[in-house]
Amino acid sequence: MPSATVNNHRPSELLSRLASAEPEVKLRALREVKNQIIGNRTKKLSFIKLGAVPAVAGILADSADDVIDYNNNNCNVNNNINNILVQSAAALGSFACGFDAGVQAVLDAGAFPNLLRLLSNSNQKVVDAGARALRMIYQSKLVPKYDFLQQKNMEFLISLLNSENENVSGLGASIITHSCETSLEQKVLFDAGILRRLNSLLEGGSLSQRYSSLESLASIFKNNSELVSKFAGAEIERPLGSIIDLLKDRYPRTRLLACMCLIVIRNTSPHLLQDIGVKSKLIHILLELLDDPGQVGDEASFAFSSLIAQKEDLQKLALEANAIDKLHHHLQKGSLRPRRYEGILLALADMCSKLESCRSKFLSLQVLNLVTDALTDDSADVRTAACICLKSVTRSIKVCNVGNSFAVLVLIFNANIAYEMPIQNLSAGYFMNEMVVVPLVQLFLDPSTSVQVAALGAISNVVVDFTTHKCIFVQCGGMKQLVQLATSMESAVRSNALWALKNFVFLADNRLKEGVFSELTASLLSSLICDPEPSVQEQALALVRNLVDGCMNSVEFMFAEDGLILGAIGRQLQNASKAEIGIQGMYALCNVASGNEFHKEAVMHQLFPQMVDKNESFMINFLQSNDSQLRTATVWTIVNLTCPSSPGAFGRLVKLRNAGIVSQIKHMVNDPCVDVKFRVRTVLGQSMAFGDN
Amino acid sequence: MPPFWIVIRQLVEIEEQMATSKKVITREEWEKRLNDVKIRKEDMNKLVMNFLVTEGYVEAAEKFRMESGTEPDIDLATITDRMAVKKAVQCGNVEDAIEKVNDLNPEILDTNPQLFFHLQQQRLIELIRNGKVEEALEFAQEELAPRGEENQSFLEELERTVALLAFEDVSNCPVGELMDISQRLKTASEVNAAILTSQSHEKDPKLPSLLKMLIWAQNQLDEKAAYPRINDLSNATLEDPTV
């Protein structure tokens, strides 16, 4: 009976036996290494650290050379060589199985070309072992891409796919899944007639051939609507049907892969698979696959997300299929593997991203508590997913105070000031309690940038609150941390921190704003307005816009440190790289222009600086922009500057007229955007009050 | 359509007809209906072959192939390898079984953590059975504990297994069923199923599920009618309807 202990199989001792000159000893050692590492990540790692991979790769290389030397002269010797080849290839394949460190070690040891050589061996077991190992390796992104564009590579690939050996044809399909990314690569494969071969593997192949051909089909179609229409059109009608048939397959993995393939096709060409039957079938199958205890169940939620993301009709269907109940049920089970946990949270996030009915279902089931728990999970991916889910749910306007939001709208009209209003998340007050806020704020300091960014995204929605709860956020140090993060090295962190601050000061009282402003300082804010990253510029300008909400005290912020901020805004507007920056900058000026005479003149100074008045004013470009929001913001500013009740209005009107702006505005009386049209009429009315026509 | 489905469909049709009152169907009437169902001999043969192959009866399958001319849907040689693995687990030689599976196809245990854990667990059980306490502890620590860290449910199963060491009389302790021969059979059939799946073969034979369907359909029908029931499944004798 074989000994069950591991005592006399210590890795180091095994390694020395690998180096033995005796083929028998070597073979036994190889087999033992293989048997120790299969299924055992810990062992793989410790063997890799001891340098086992180069040792095994060396044996493979030597024996592959021996095959040529002996050239079938001696049957016994050959038998031994073949066994060594099989065992070493199997060991290398296992090192690479689902383990990037192993793949790297195998690649570094130069084993790749020798494994390829095994494919042309005359012994089927050697071919099997080589193909299996290569397939394992091709699961990793660490492997260099296969170059389909070279003629001889394409020929080799076709020979793999045409092989009778299912491991070899499976390898061919895995290479496609691994390396087919660009539309050119997709087209080359399509033109080479690969689809026909994949399709025959789909219909007549074994289980594993079916798996790999479904995966390769998906990678050939991904985001390439031209190929999809060629495929689903006249040329080959059947394949789509045969994929749909596989939705009924008895193997869960086949059903999952068929779903994923159809989802790729649907997302690429939305006009296909519009049949409600197929849509609800996909939803039902994926929800059912969540129950699978293995990898299929883990991946089902990701496939579900890709099916429903951004698509209201599918989210509605999924809600009717009790998707939220089912996802909730899985969360309740607890002790989920990270991948599964992450997938379920992201699926919930996508479910709640658009429809109010979904969010109210989410709230009624009290899923929130479970999602909040996930904020402190060990896995960074799970924490990120929990933040994304919270962000999605807090978009809810369900529990918003109607009276308040109405008041906001009235306020905007009365004072001619503009907020960057986070319209989507008026309900956030509901979430503004310690249970959610404190763990979210703690994630600001998370070691993972993606967690930080996601936490900031979530807090952006949570901190919007009309009245009372903002102080919780300040008390737990959230505001100070946001300011800190606004100076992060990562532009995504800077921009999301500013986004959150922007929402935080939205309709906040002056005391809170002063707090934020003194923490931020004028110099930091103006340098953020001039950040190299446009998304940061935009958020910094939007923050200014909300900070200066027409009340005199807050307008004064702009004039701290000799009007540093105002100057920065002016500079950005002179050379705004995209419309969004113009919009936020103009609204910021618009709000300043709602102040007193001095404020209005300061805005004029930014709009018409002495130095550049020979050039056409950027205001004209803004008014002629295709972006209606930019036109609106610009006209609003002019409304505030020419308000007849202020003494200097006429002088400013003259300046605007001289710059050709008034005549431009006259051309806009029938602007397609209602907002613009009304504001244009206000400007013209005001200018007529000064006798202009 | 497979023959048993036809029978089941008939049963369901009869059931529908008799939705209102409980009708009596005589043996004569029943047999006449059964005779109307045409079942191809080849289909029956395929069912039998499927059973023999899946359950691993190589010699019987070989004989049956020669006698009936039914081709198995799998290379019979692979059955021998699979049976050797199954047998090794059944005899408690788990390490041997693991090595055999790895020779057959190294991907099976590398991509199936649950099966790998159950085999290792079985190895631990065998060590405990043989009274090798120290070895068992070392094995649990070195091989199984890392798997428990990766998966909560493995950890629970591991704890249950290690608990065996705490009892003098393991067969009469709360986790005693782990020592039972049925635990070996459970593990053996799990390996068997995994090997079959890796060979693109279904892991369960069709015959038992057809019999289950037959029983289900009869139970449904019982509520609606009295008819010649099959109680003795191995001989398929029709009982007289009891009124």
Question: In words, what does this structure look like?
Answer:
The complex is a heterodimer of chains A (693) and B (243). With 693 residues, chain A is mainly α. Among the domains of chain A are: 1-144, Leucine-rich Repeat Variant; 562-693, Leucine-rich Repeat Variant (Alpha Horseshoe). Chain A contains 42 helices and no strands. The N and C termini of chain A lie far apart (107 Å). With 243 residues, chain B is mainly alpha-helical. Among the domains of chain B are: 3-39 and 205-238, no CATH class; 105-198, no CATH class. Chain B is built from twelve helices and four strands. In chain B, strand 3 (230-232) and strand 4 form a beta hairpin. In chain B, helix 8 packs antiparallel against helix 9 (133-150) and helix 9 runs antiparallel to helix 10 (152-162). Chain B is elongated, with a radius of gyration of 24 Å. Chain B starts with a helix and ends in a 5-residue tail after the last strand. Chain A binds chain B through residues 1-2, 4-7, 31, 34-35, 38-42, 90, 93-94, 97-98, 132, 136, 166, 206-208, 250, 293-294, 335, 337, and chain B through 93, 95-96, 98-99, 102, 105-107, 109-114, 116, 123, 126-127, 132, 135, 138-139, 142-143, 146-147, 150-153, 197-198, 200, 202.
Tell me the layout of helices and strands:
The complex is a heterodimer of chains A (693) and B (243).
Chain A (H helix, E strand, L loop, with lengths): L10 H8 L4 H15 L3 H9 L2 H19 L4 H22 L3 H9 L2 H8 L5 H14 L13 H11 L4 H14 L3 H9 L2 H11 L2 H15 L3 H11 L2 H8 L6 H17 L7 H14 L5 H14 L3 H9 L2 H11 L4 H14 L4 H9 L2 H8 L5 H14 L8 H14 L18 H9 L6 H14 L7 H6 L2 H8 L5 H14 L5 H11 L1 H8 L4 H14 L4 H5 L3 H15 L4 H14 L4 H11 L10 H6 L4 H14 L7 H10 L2 H6 L7 H16 L4
Helix pairs in contact in A: 1-2, 2-5, 4-5, 4-7, 5-6, 5-8, 7-8, 8-10, 9-10, 10-13, 12-13, 13-16, 16-17, 16-18, 17-18, 18-21, 20-21, 21-24, 23-24, 24-27, 27-30, 29-30, 30-33, 32-33, 32-35, 33-36, 35-36, 35-37, 36-39, 39-42
Chain B lengths: L2 H15 L5 E2 L2 H10 L4 H15 L2 H11 L7 H15 L3 H11 L2 H4 L2 H17 L3 H18 L1 H11 L18 H18 L7 H17 L2 E2 L3 E3 L4 E2 L5
Helix pairs in contact in B: 1-12, 3-4, 5-6, 5-11, 8-9, 8-10, 8-11, 9-10
